[in-house]
Every structure is written in structure tokens, then in C-alpha cells.
TrEMBL record:
Keywords linked to the UniProt accession: Hydrolase, Metal-binding, Metalloprotease, Protease
EC number: 3.4.24.-
GO biological process annotation, one example: mitochondrial proton-transporting ATP synthase complex assembly
Name assigned to this protein: Mitochondrial inner membrane protease ATP23
Any Pfam family: Peptidase_M76
Chain positions covered by the region annotation Disordered: 1-20
Enzyme type, top EC level: hydrolase
Amino acid sequence: MEAEPAPEPGSTSFPSAVNGGKTLEECQTMIQRSLRTPVVKFLLKHLEQSGCGIGDRFIKAINCNKQIAGGYVRGEGILVCGNHMTMQDDVNQVVIHELIHAFDDCRAKNLDWSNCAHHACSEIRAGHLSGDCHYKRELLRGFVKIRGHEQDCVRRRVMKSVISNPYCSEAAAKDAMEAVWDVCYNDTQPFDRAP
């Protein structure tokens, strides 16, 4: 998600929760629970098989000033914004999404997060494969559409993320997303097909 080199996304070191979010300790406990879910276990196994095993501190809770759920930072790992988490499913979703970015970073040794097309491709894959755009989640966000909701959601979320990349203007983000859409949307690795 983040361009390299990037600081921790909107992080602060205070331990308190904000607006009903979780404390760092509560979030870290939730991260540990998410490590036991089948999809997270599957992704961790495939990261290891790809030569990118992770350590105990690869996924950590932080407090974020920005309105984001978390991020992946090359060389640092996955950061989950505890003060923006409200339930276990939120944490699971962030961990799965960011593990797909970590997998992409591992398998594509030349992935350049400052390249709009590279960033867009990983966001397309993470949005499509993580379940971020499941119908139920979209309904809870207030987006109601019977047909084509998943691809609309992925496109919307890709644009939001890639526009936040300091190297990508809105026009560059849109062009990049459109250029790589078919290839990246249909790339379901390490899954056999989209979950």
C-alpha cells in the first residue's frame, strides 16, 4: 500500500483508543487471534514457501492519526491501526489485505511502490482477493448495488489508495488502474481462484 521509503502510516505512540477503537494491547491480542484464521494461515504459509518468512513482529498494532485501517511497509511489515478497529473481523480483514501486499512484494522482486501501475496492481489484487468488497461489507458501507458491486468496490478502493501515493496524481492512478486491471484482477495467486 505505501510507497517506499515510507514511515509508519500516520502512527503515534500513545496507547489509548480513539472513537471507540481498540487500545494497542487489545489490537495486538486481536492480531494474534487473526493469525489462527484459515485464510491468514494460508497466506503466511505461502509467504514462507516464497522465501519471505515473517518474524513475530511483522504484524503490529499502532495508533494512526490518518483515517486508515493499516498498511504494509516494505522492511517493516504490516501495521494495524488499533484505534480505528472496532471488532475482530476488522482486524482480520486488514491483516488479510496487507498480507496480499506482502506476498506481492515477495514474489515480484522488482515491485516499485512509487510506480502507480505496480501499486494499483497490488491494490486490485488485495481488494479482490481479501474479501474487502464482499456484498455484506459494501452494504454496511452504504453502497447498495445488486450487480457488479464487487468490481465497482475494488475500483473505488484502488483509487482511494493509489491517490494517497505521493507519486500518483488522480489521473495517473486512474490510468494505471485501467492499464493493469485485467491482468491483475485475474491474477489470483497464491489462491487457485478468488475466494
